[in-house]
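Protein modeling request. Please complete all fields; requests missing the sequence field cannot be processed.
Requester role: graduate student
Desired output: 3D structure, token encoding
Chains: 1
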Amino acid sequence: MSYTFENIFPSLKPFFQWCAETRIGIYIHTVTWAFPLIETIHILALVVLLGSILLVNLRMCGILRGWSVAQIRGTLKPFILAGLAAILITGILLFLSDPFKYYFNEAFGPKIFYLVLAILYQFTLFGRAASVWPKLAACLSFALWFAVGAAGRAIGWV
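Delivered output (158 residues):
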């Protein structure tokens, strides 16, 4: 059995159908330049988000020196939030362009699962974990965001 939305959440099919019929989804799907432009912005936002998180995590691991963890987190927080917002918006737009591509894709479910875990961890538990076990907190952050990226990249290959 494959682990797709089709097999795990078959009751979501009407939602995916509705998404496929939205005006914006149809527009993105039919206009030649729309998907590549949105995907480019999605990837650039990913670089901003993951680059910022990477710098914070490297500081927490003691690899980067100079600024305190609080200073680097404070400085990069706007970039982390902007990158996340851009990723979520462009991700939704990419999804709307062809929802059934994702409904039948075995990598899409894990990507969404890891994305939700990574966001929840980064914006809730990360701060508390970082104050007690900074290196462990940073490694878990690395692992979760890597899983999001790997599953996202796998969407095109499965």
